[in-house]
Specification:
Number of helices: 9
CATH topology of the largest domain: Rossmann fold
Structural class: alpha/beta
Protein name: Oxidoreductase NAD-binding domain-containing protein 1
Pfam families: NAD_binding_1 (PF00175)
Keywords: NAD, Oxidoreductase
CATH superfamily of the largest domain: Nucleotide-binding domain of ferredoxin-NADP reductase (FNR) module
Number of strands: 14
Order of helices and strands: HHEEHEEEEHEHEEHEHEEHEHE
CATH class of the largest domain: Alpha Beta
């Protein structure tokens, strides 16, 4: 996203001033001055685009809600999981979407996929994020300064989501994740489980097909949410299945994980058994992985309008 004149605010930021808590207004002005200045329509720096720039053309809700950190856990050695109590009762999201993450005193806005289900927000008024350690200011704050009771603000955005309506035709899902790209796909997986429960308990709502998760990481310790994922496969046999792939495993694999682990990257042989006209494919991970999988699915004859992906870095 590039402004047309030095120190001008983009339409996104002008809209932000209307709804942001007043304590964040100066931060956004400072951010605009530092990061969005242009000369003759060109960026001054060749630096990597930040979250607001990369997502400037994506959908965003107008609602920005204050939120309080009510839980912090270590999902892995490098990933912290935040539980956030959301203040605004009108705040909603669709499984797969992300949030703009506003931190008091931090000029740069973070962007993180929600890793919990919409149902959790509806029932308990909370959502969850899983953030990998980095020197990028928002991630660094989460890992070094964030504490229980810390206050932030959130705004939902994103065009990558699974939000079926009750009258929609049943579809099968294939979720393909690489590294921390699991976050939005885990939200979709949890939402699929919620839809299965609604059908089983009430006989109402959208009728889910099968859901297959393929998740690739360097080693089993970097497979986030693995225990919860296995719990879902046990709770919904024949409806939810998973396949974990590791590329640099050096330690022995524990017995409980072994039946679900494959050495090496996700391949066409792994995916072709899931192909059908009623299958929707959701992919999130590093851009090279996404490009490889998209080309692979095209070679396998998958209709490209059934393939959806989210690139985060």
């Amino acid at each position: 996203m590039i402004c047309t004149a030095a120190f001008a605010l983009s339409p996104l930021q002008r809209n932000t001033f209307k709804v942001l808590p007043s304590s964040f207004s100066f931060l956004h002005l400072r951010y605009a001055a530092l990061c969005y200045c242009t000369i003759n329509g060109k960026m001054k720096s060749k630096r990597r685009p930040d979250h607001l720039e990369r997502t400037a053309n994506d959908f965003r809700q107008e609602i920005i809600s204050k939120a309080k950190v009510c839980g912090i856990t270590s999902e892995s050695e490098t990933v912290k999981r935040l539980r956030l109590a959301v203040t605004n009762k009108e705040f909603t999201f669709k499984a797969g979407q992300w949030v703009d993450f506003f931190i008091p005193g931090v000029a740069i806005v973070g962007g993180y996929s929600i890793c919990s289900s919409p149902g959790l927000l509806e029932q308990e008024g909370v959502l969850e994020l899983a953030v990998k350690y980095a020197t990028h200011p928002p991630a660094h704050w989460i890992h070094t300064q964030c504490t229980l009771g810390s206050e932030v603000a959130l705004r939902v955005g994103g065009n990558f989501f699974f939000d079926p309506q009750p009258a929609d035709s049943p579809a099968n899902l294939v979720l393909i994740a690489g590294g921390v790209g699991i976050n939005p796909l885990f939200s979709i997986l949890l939402h699929a489980a919620d839809l299965h429960r609604a059908q089983a308990n009430k006989g109402t709502g959208y009728k889910m097909g099968t859901t297959n998760l393929f998740y690739c990481a360097k080693n089993t310790h970097e497979l986030l949410f693995r225990k919860h994922i296995l719990g879902l496969t046990n709770a919904f046999p024949g409806k939810i299945a998973c396949s974990f792939h590791v590329t640099q495993q050096s330690l022995p694999i524990c017995g409980k994980l072994q039946p679900y682990i494959k050495e090496g990257r996700i391949s066409g042989n792994d995916l072709e058994k899931c192909i059908s006209q009623d299958t929707l494919w959701y992919i999130c991970g590093p851009p090279p992985m996404i490009e490889f999988i998209v080309k692979l699915l095209e070679k396998l004859g998958v209709a490209q309008n059934n393939v959806f992906f989210e690139k985060w870095w």
